[in-house]
């Protein structure tokens, strides 16, 4: 049983930074696509960043240059470094895993999800 647990959310002012973490357990971590998604109130869930292996990350246009996704296979961990945060980044952020490559930014085909961590950016 794959399990994902996010941490690191919080409230920051515009221009600030946060680092989200996701702990993965239950299967061979290195063989999975991992991703970060977010959902703001009244909006659909959207992809933020995905990663399969080092150098294979993809980002939503809205976060390119500001967010960096990384993974540590030895620690079964996924990270999202978020810099230059904007109020429009406010959302619940979810960690997700998918058992097959490729790693799409569309959320519909991902198999496993965490409970989410809230990020709030004030202006």
SSE topology sketch:
Elements: E1 3-7, E2 10-13, E3 18-25, E4 33-39, E5 46-51, E6 58-59, E7 67-72, E8 77-82, E9 91-98, E10 112-113, E11 117-122
Parallel strand pairs: 2-11
Antiparallel strand pairs: 1-3, 3-8, 4-5, 4-9, 5-6, 7-8, 9-10, 9-11
Descriptive report:
- The chain is mainly β and about 120 residues long.
- Helices cover about 0% and strands about 50% of the residues.
- The chain has no helices and 11 strands.
- The strands form 2 sheets. Strands 2, 4, 5, 6, 9, 10 and 11 form a 7-stranded mixed beta sheet that branches. It has a 4-stranded antiparallel beta sheet with strand order 1-3-8-7, with no helix packed on it.
- Strand 7 (about 65-70) and strand 8 form a beta hairpin.
- The protein is globular, with a radius of gyration of 13 Å.
Based on the model shown, name its key terms.
123 residues; mainly beta; 7-stranded mixed sheet; 4-stranded antiparallel sheet; 11 strands; 0% helix; 49% strand
How would you sum up this structure in a few lines?
The protein is mostly beta strands and 123 residues long. It is 0% helix and 49% strand.
């Amino acid at each position: 049983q794959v399990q994902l647990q996010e941490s690191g959310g919080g409230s920051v002012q515009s221009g600030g930074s946060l680092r989200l973490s996701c702990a993965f357990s239950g299967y061979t971590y290195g063989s999975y696509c991992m991703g970060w998604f977010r959902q703001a109130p009244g909006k659909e869930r959207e992809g933020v960043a995905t990663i399969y292996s080092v150098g294979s990350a993809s980002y939503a246009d809205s976060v390119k240059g500001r967010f960096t996704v990384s993974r540590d296979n030895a620690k079964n961990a996924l990270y999202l470094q978020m810099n230059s945060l904007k109020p429009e980044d406010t959302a619940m952020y979810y960690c997700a895993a998918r058992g097959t490559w490729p790693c799409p930014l569309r959320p519909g085909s991902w198999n496993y999800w965490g409970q989410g961590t809230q990020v709030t950016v004030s202006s």
